Amino acid sequence: MNSRDKGKRGELKWRNQLRDAGFDAFRTAQFAGNSPDGSPDVMCPSLPSIHHEVKWVERLNVQKAMDQAVRDAKPDQIPVVCHKKNDCPWLVTVRSEDWFRIIRNTDLVVGVGS
Asked: What is the pTM of this model?
């Protein structure tokens, strides 16, 4: 399988992960083509502030993938890298400042100031 096909399959699998979690999601290449305009690999209308960069590879340069997500994300979006290896679960990588931004807006935090 070539890398383009594997990338497409990975994007579809991540889209399905989002859908299984109850979110509407679609692969942007289906709608925007393979344009270099900074479109995320997968869009989730109910999570508009998340830029999803999807990688399905055995060896991921996480920093390079995050740099791409940061570069492609809109200024008001949180760049995340959704990645997996064969026979492994999905992982989501996010910068620490974005992680704190996310958890401060949840009910998981108890007794900590903003």
From this structure: 0.83
